[in-house]
């Protein structure tokens, strides 16, 4: 399954904002919301076994040298996302916006 992630580039980090099932919906979201940073839509494949087709878990790695999180990917289950994020990373439970 592919999803469209709105990612912002702020303070040299990459943060995921929202997940959509279609790119036009993500584009409309950007147009109708005032987002900080430089928003970008990224198409990503959901990795791992997906326990619910309406949700994903996003993983961000932590760069200790710069004290910043970097979006790493979207996962179908929390365990795979936690492994990808690493011990100091961030995992967020996200509903896919239809």
Describe it for me?
The protein has one domain. The two termini are 14 Å apart. A hairpin with a 4-residue loop joins strand 4 (55-63) and strand 5. The protein has 2 helices and 6 strands, in the order ββαβββαβ. The chain has 98 residues and is an alpha+beta fold. The protein has helices at residues 23-32, 78-85, and strands at residues 2-10, 13-20, 38-45, 55-63, 68-75, 90-97. The model has no long low-confidence stretch (mean pLDDT 93). The longest helix has 10 residues, at 23-32.
- N-to-C SSE series? EEHEEEHE
Count the domains. Answer: 1
Level of helix content? 10-25%
Count of extended strands:
6
Task: Characterize the main sheet.
Answer: 6 strands, mixed
Strand content: over 45%
Determine the N-to-C terminus distance: 14 Å
The helix count comes to: 2
Brief write-up:
This protein is α+β, with helices and mostly antiparallel strands. Helix content is 18%, strand content 51%. The chain starts with a strand and ends with a strand.
């Amino acid at each position: 399954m592919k999803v469209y992630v709105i990612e912002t580039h702020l303070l040299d980090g990459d943060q995921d904002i929202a997940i959509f099932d279609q790119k036009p919906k993500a584009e409309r979201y950007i147009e109708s919301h005032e987002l900080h940073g430089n928003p970008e839509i990224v198409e990503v494949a959901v990795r791992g076994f997906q326990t619910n087709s309406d949700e994903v878990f996003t993983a961000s790695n932590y760069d200790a040298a710069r004290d910043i999180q970097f979006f790493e990917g979207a996962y179908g289950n929390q365990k795979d996302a936690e492994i990808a994020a690493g011990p100091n990373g961030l995992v967020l439970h996200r509903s896919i916006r239809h």
